[in-house]
Design brief:
By secondary structure, this protein is of the alpha/beta class. The chain has a domain of 259 residues: pyruvate-formate lyase- activating enzyme, CATH 3.80.30.20. The protein contains 16 helices and 18 strands. The strands form four sheets. A nine-stranded mixed beta sheet has the order 10-11-9-8-7-6-5-2-12. It has a four-stranded antiparallel beta sheet with strand order 1-15-14-13, with no helix packed on it. The protein has a three-stranded antiparallel beta sheet with strand order 16-18-17. Strand 6, helix 4 and strand 7 form a beta-alpha-beta unit. The chain starts with a helix and ends with a helix.
Length: 416
C-alpha cells in the first residue's frame, strides 16, 4: 500500500514539476563564480533503436553525426566564453562512441578549456575493441559505462540486442578483456523486463560476480507512455508488482561485495555514477535534447537535430523550453537527489537554504520517518533498506516523467 501511495504521489508531483513552458527560454547569464559544475553531453545516434529506450536517439548517419559533433564543440566554446567552469564530464546517448575520432576531438577540446577531473562515457559492448579503448584512454576517461542490460540470450533477442551486440557469453568476454583499462568499468543492467524471471536475474548477477566487475547499475525498467505501448506489442505487459522482489534479490546478492553509490548503483571503489545529478548540484546539458539545471532553472535544448546544428552555426544556444523551480521545488529536488545517494547532509541543506530547509520540508521528512524510510545520526539522514526501495520508486517515476517530456518534445518536432 505504501509503495502504491509513493508511486502515485511521485508520478503526480514529477509530472507537475517537469511540465516545461514552451517559449519560456532561459537567458543564460555570464558566470563569474568559481562553482564547479558537471558538463553533460548528449550524442543521440545509435546503430540500433532498442524498443524499451525512451532517450532521445535516432539511427546513426555518419555525415549528420559529424556535423552534430562540430555543433557540439561550438556549444562548448559558448559556455567557456560565458565563464562557466566544469570539473566533470558525462557523455550519454544514444551511443557516444559511434564516431570515436569526433568524440575524442570533442573531449580534448573540453579538457583544454576546463579543469576537468573526471570523465564518464557510455558505450555498447560491440565498441569494446582495442583501437577504441586506446583512444578513450588517451582522452582521459576514468569511467566507461557499458550498456549490457542482461546476459540472457533469449532476453537479448527479445529486446533487439543479440544480433548487433552478441550473445551474453560474448558480451561477458568483452567486459573481461576491458577490465583494468579504466579506473572504473561499469555494467549497466536492467531488471523487470516482461518475461524476466528470478532465475534469469540470478544468472545475470552470477556473471557480474564472476567478472568481478568494478561497478554495476541495476535500473528498474523505466518507460514512457509511448514506449510502454511499444513494449507491450514486442515483449508483453510490464508488471511493476514484481519490481520490489527483483530489487531485493539484487541487493541481497550484491551488498556483500559492493557499497551503495546510490540506491541502484553498486561500486567496489569510489567513482562517478550514471546519476550525476546526485553528485553535482548544477549541471549543463549540451547536445540535442539535453537537459540542464542552473540557478534553480531546469531547461532543455531543442530535440530537432537539424535545428540544433543550425542554431549553433549561427552562434546561438539551441534552447527549447525551461521551468523555473520555486524554493519548495528546489528543496524537494535536493531532498530526492541527495537521499538517492543513500544519505542527506542536513547541516549542508540548512546552510544552502538559509536555515529554511527543515521548516519547509518537515512534512515530507515526517511522512518518510513514519514509514521508517531513513534514520538520523551524525547529522545525516540515512536511507534504511526499505527506504532505498522507496527511493528507487521515486527515481523511477522521476525518469519516467523526464521520458514523457522527451516524447512530448519529439512529437512537437515531428508536427513542425
Amino acid at each position: 500500500m505504501i509503495n502504491q501511495i509513493v508511486t502515485k504521489i511521485a508520478k503526480r508531483e514529477f509530472s507537475r514539476s517537469l511540465k516545461f513552458e514552451e517559449g519560456s527560454l532561459p537567458k543564460l547569464p555570464s558566470c563569474s563564480d568559481e562553482k564547479q559544475r558537471l558538463l553533460y553531453m548528449h550524442v543521440p545516434f545509435c546503430e540500433e533503436l532498442c524498443p524499451y529506450c525512451s532517450f532521445h536517439r535516432v539511427i546513426f548517419n555518419e555525415p549528420l553525426t559529424r556535423r552534430y559533433f562540430q555543433a557540439l564543440r561550438r556549444e562548448i566554446k559558448i559556455y567557456h566564453e560565458k565563464g562557466y567552469k566544469f570539473e566533470g564530464i558525462y557523455v550519454g546517448g544514444g551511443t557516444p562512441t559511434v564516431l570515436i575520432d569526433e568524440l575524442a576531438e570533442t573531449l580534448n577540446l573540453a579538457r583544454e578549456l576546463f579543469p576537468i577531473k573526471d570523465i564518464s562515457v557510455e558505450t555498447n559492448p560491440n565498441h569494446l575493441i582495442s583501437e577504441k579503448i586506446k583512444i578513450l584512454q588517451n582522452c582521459g576517461i576514468k569511467r566507461l559505462s557499458v550498456g549490457v542490460q542482461t546476459f540472457n540470450d533469449e532476453m537479448l533477442k527479445k529486446i533487439g540486442r543479440y544480433e548487433k551486440y552478441g550473445s551474453g557469453k560474448e558480451i561477458a568476454e568483452r567486459l573481461k578483456n576491458t577490465q583494468g583499462y579504466f579506473h572504473t568499468l561499469n555494467a549497466d543492467m536492467i531488471f523487470n523486463f516482461p518475461g524476466q524471471t528470478p532465475d534469469m536475474l540470478d544468472a545475470d548477477i552470477d556473471m557480474l560476480l564472476k567478472l568481478n566487475i568494478d561497478q554495476t547499475t541495476f535500473y528498474p525498467l523505466m518507460i514512457s507512455a509511448i514506449t510502454q505501448n511499444i513494449m507491450k506489442e514486442t515483449m508483453g505487459e510490464v508488471d511493476f508488482r514484481a519490481e520490489e522482489k527483483f530489487y531485493k534479490l539484487i541487493v541481497r546478492r550484491l551488498e556483500k561485495f559492493y557499497d551503495f553509490s546510490s540506491a541502484w548503483c553498486f561500486s567496489r571503489k569510489e567513482s562517478l555514477v550514471d546519476e550525476y545529478v546526485v553528485e553535482f548540484e548544477e549541471y549543463v546539458g549540451l547536445g540535442s535534447g539535453a537537459i540542464g539545471y542552473l540557478h534553480g532553472t531546469c531547461y532543455s535544448n531543442t530535440f530537432d537535430i537539424e535545428g540544433y546544428i543550425a542554431s549553433l552555426e549561427k552562434g546561438k544556444l539551441p534552447l527549447q523550453a525551461s521551468r523555473k523551480f520555486d524554493l519548495h521545488d528546489q528543496m524537494s529536488y535536493d531532498f530526492l537527489m541527495k537521499l538517492f545517494s543513500t544519505r542527506l547532509d542536513i547541516a549542508s541543506m540548512q546552510k544552502k537554504y538559509d536555515g529554511k530547509f527543515l521548516k519547509t520540508m518537515w512534512k515530507e521528512i515526517a511522512a518518510f520517518e513514519m514509514v521508517r524510510a531513513f534514520r538520523y545520526f551524525d547529522h545525516y539522514l540515512h536511507l534504511t533498506p526499505y527506504g532505498r526501495y522507496l527511493w528507487v520508486i521515486m527515481m523511477r517515476e522521476f525518469f519516467i516523467a523526464v521520458n514523457n517530456f522527451r516524447d512530448y518534445c519529439r512529437k512537437q518536432v515531428n508536427i513542425g
